[in-house]
Amino acid sequence: MSYDRFGGIYSYPGYGYGYGNRYGSSSRYGSNYYNRWGSSGDGNSYTSPYNRNYRYGRRRRRPNYWERNRPWYNNYRRYRNTRSPSPAREETRPPPPPPEVPEVPEVPEDELAKELFVKDVDLHIGMNAKKHRTDEYTCTQGKDAELIVRRGDKVKMTITFDRPYNKEKNDLKLCFSLGPSPKANKGTLALFEIDESGKEKFGLDKWGANLTSRDDAKSEITVMVSIPANCIIGEWSFFVRTISEGKSEDGKPKEIIGKDFQLEDDITILFNPWCKDDPVYMSDGELLEEYVLNENGSVWRGSYNTLSPKPWNYGQFETDILDASLSLIRLGFGDKLKPMSDPVKVSRMIAKMVNANNDNGVLIGRWGKDYSGGEVPWSWVGSLKILRKWIKDGPVKYGQCWVFACVATTVCRALGIPCRTVTNFESAHDTNGSNTVETYFKPGSGGFLEKDEHHRENDSIWNFHVWNEVWMARNDLQEFTEHGWQVIDATPQESSDGYMQCGPCPVRAIKNGVCTVNYDCGFIFTEVNGDEIHWITYPDGSEERKRIIKDSVGKNISTRKPGEQTERLDVTNEYKYKEGSKEERIAVMKAHETARFPNPDTYANVEKVKPIKFDLILRDDVMIGSIMPIKLVAKNEASRERTITKGEIIVSQAAYTGHTGKDILKEEFGPVTLKAGEEKIFEARLHPDKYLDYLVELANIAIVAEAQIEPIGGRDDEEEFYMKRASRFRRPDLKIEGPKTAKVGDVAKFTVILENPLDKPLTGCKISMESVGFDDFDLKDVNNIKPKEVWKMEFPLKTVKAARHSAVYFSFECEEIPDISGYSIIKISA
Fold it and tell me: Of the residues 37, 68, 104, 391, which has the fewest C-beta atoms closer than 10 A?
């Protein structure tokens, strides 16, 4: 694999957090893999994983996976009114083994009168959904409503018979089953009698039901079913079995087992963060409102001095999203259902399956210039279109880190795992397991060191990187057992246990440098607090450590402030102690000592103290199309004169992953002599005509400042200063004007406004939208926008459902300025 200086089309190298290649991969998506279905991993040719139906319930009487051989999931979607008739196909699989449920014997005709028949089971879907906080799922509403509940809680059911239920002569058994071959010892089968005393209590890991009332006039009873807090999540089949007293042919007493009453729809069971016995339990109800129930969000991007939020529609309660989320983890676990009871294993599987590098997951990653055949990553404004497209067609093109993370947030919240999207600015990417950020230089012809681009262990520092935090107890660990945030990362960077997956890892372990904790703690520690190490490589193959930069990594770690759409919550202190403090240095050294592949020469000797202090000052409010001023401040902190023999400021085009391309500005200065305590400012100005034609993707640039200082006392080694900073130009926001309230069935009119900041027209303009509560539209072409023009366009949108957290998100694309978006919050009532 190769790439040009800017990066072109490049991948993340794999290095050995598992079985990946150590120094790279031939796959342009991050790994040269072949999954169990024969996929080449490029998203273009694969054997569909949906030759296996990873949904195990009886919903809509659809056939199970061994009875079908159909591509993808669109032929058996959850909703009947959206499903097309499927042509008959030959069965290609043998029938499944029978489940471990006792067979029901045939009842002789003369004894049918003694059998108790179940006529109906009322699941009280509205009441149960509200009690379990699942009433916002679209599938719990309307005439085809289905029951979604959370484990560790009780479910009310009313069972109606053909005659009054007699406690002395009748008994009932309830059965929940999951999968093609349910077994009690695998946690996939529960067959139990109803406690008629109404007093029995059922523990953490026990299914059960209490009889709470009976109405002989209506021939019905009401029961409360207890779901264990550690049961497997998923779509469970359910039936009721009656047992009645009767007599055999010789007149002896005999049990008559009635015909099972099977529910047409299955019952979906999710994690329960409101239950103290569930590992995902979170005690703060206001935080649960944000991290489980809120469908709106923002993700921070940019650089640490020019950070800004991009609005995102999580939409975890919308049509098809829960189906997609459950299918995604089943696809990863295959026939192993027991792990789906453990949020640690489920969250790790989500990190693995949201990217398409293994097992035909959701998103194909692409970092480079060519996005043909798919959507550019910054055009997405929500998870709905991505997950629905995956359900229909398979892996979706294309994603980058914030897209992977936002889709993972949707899946986690849909399944009941508290989750938030987190951005780390100046985020390191360690490729060799040293728990440091190593960059290699070589002597250059111009006097300054030049980056050794071909050194196999060059690490990088991204402008920003986005991952997720999930809230859960880590009962699988000894040191960190309390509830807390755990990092998972769905972006395919480095392989872990042979797959592109990362986490969950306790944030507290990262902060303390305890890198032996599962999972991937060393890699994440380096992202937020690794020391940046510069090495010089000489022609004879020897290497020399040049400098250690201790404060360049992990800045302004950000997530959305709960309840505030565009307000930032800084969580840097949760990941690292104060920069330069004793505790922070202890954590860094502990991480170094427990690295997988530590370099023993990294901290071998004490560094020299530089007598001239430099600071690179960048403005964070420069709009694209304007002049960007750059200042380098040098202060002589020595007690005598010092001379800067020469220096330069270089500006290059850049990707947000740290890869740089063409130099677009170079300003040289020196020699300059500074008296003791004197300060000098060196300036450069970047004009639009220098950069507009060279900006790529997110309008990032890289600024490098270098200087050489004359030696003291006849020493023959010059002191050298080097600093690299990332910045980006601000893009205009879409201003959205619309109503604050609406009712289902109304047509709400939204006006989209954009001011062109450039002295040239915006061309190739397109707009799209995604929402909670509206009838969305796909990409639409719009007219070019003239220089400095204020463009307006009205969009009438029909409301289709009520929602507490309603919003509409617009995305605008053009050739000159990528990634322009805006949103409007609206409350839709029934």
Answer: 104
Report percent pLDDT > 90 for the chain.
60
The strand pairing partners of 680, in sequence order, are 634
What mean pLDDT do residues 215-242 have?
Answer: 94
Rounded to 5 degrees, φ, ψ at 600 are -65, -20
List, as one string, the DSSP characters of 178-216: -SSS--GGGTSEEEEE-BSSS-----TT--EEEEEEEET
Query: What single-letter DSSP state applies at residue 626?
Result: S
| Contact assessment for residue 530 and residue 430, using Cβ atoms and an 8 Å cutoff | yes
For the CA atoms of 459, 357, 378, 437, the dihedral, rounded to the nearest 10 degrees, stands at -10
Kindly list the distances between the CA atom of residue 595 and the CA atoms of 424, 520, 546, in Å, as whole numbers in the listed order: 21, 11, 21
Tokens of 275: 């239950």
Is 278 assigned a catalytic role?
A: no
pLDDT (tens digit per residue) in 208-219: 999 999 999 999
Asked if the model's pLDDT at residue 147 lies above 90, the reply is yes
**Scanning the structure block, which residue is given the tokens 């230089």?**
441
Find, among 472, 473, 471, 468, the residue nearest to 487 by Cα.
Answer: 468
pLDDT of amino acid 106: 57
CB-CB contact of 471 with 407 (8 Å): no
Q: Encoding tokens for residue 611?
A: 């007598």
pLDDT exceeds cutoff 50 at 4: no
Bridge partners for 633 per DSSP: 615, 681
Tens-digit pLDDT profile for residues 374-404: 999 999 999 999 999 999 999 999 999 999 9
Instruction: Exactly one of 430, 489, 520, 531 is catalytic; name it.
Output: 489
Q: Which amino acid is at 403?
A: V
Longest dimension (CA), the chain: 118
pLDDT at 80: 33
| Helix (H) or strand (E) run with residue 126 in it | helix 125-131
Distances (CA, A) of 639 to 552, 612, 672, 707: 27, 11, 17, 20
Mean pLDDT, residues 142-159 = 95
Where residue 98 falls among pLDDT bands split at 50, 70, 90? low
- Determine phi and psi for 796, rounding to 5 degrees: -80, 125
pLDDT category at 656 given cuts 50, 70, 90 is confident
End-to-end Cα spacing for the chain: 55
Pure H helices in 260-312: 285-291
Give the number of other Cβ atoms within 10 Å of residue 446's Cβ: 11
Rounded to whole angstroms, the Cα distance separating 438 from 526 reads 11
Q: How would you classify residue 138: left for phi > 0, otherwise alpha for psi between -120 and 50, otherwise beta?
A: alpha
Burial 503-540 (b: 16+ CB within 10 A, else e): bbbbbbbbbbbbbebbbbbbbbbbbbbbbbbbbbbeee
Domains and CATH numbers, the chain: 48-96 (no CATH), 109-270 (2.60.40.10), 285-593 (3.90.260.10), 612-728 (2.60.40.10), 735-829 (2.60.40.10)
Count of C-beta atoms within a 10 Å radius of residue 427 = 29
Which residue of the set 465, 534, 659, 805 is catalytic?
465
DSSP class of residue 72 equals S
Which of 654 and 82 is assigned the larger pLDDT?
654
Which two structure tokens, joined as six digits, stand for 769? Answer: 């939208």
359 assigned to active site: no
3-state secondary structure of 209: strand
Residue 29: asked if its preceding bond is cis (omega within 30°), the reply is no
Q: Which helix (H) or strand (E) holds 15?
A: none
The mean pLDDT value of the chain amounts to 84
Neighbours of 827 (CB within 10 A): 16
Residue 603 has pLDDT above 90, yes or no: no
CA-based nearest residue to 587, from 509, 527, 516, 474: 509
What is the CB neighbour count within 10 angstroms for residue 471? 25
Q: Among residues 426, 464, 457, which one has the least CA distance to residue 441?
A: 457
**Residue (of 53, 81, 43) closest to 327 by Cα position:** 53
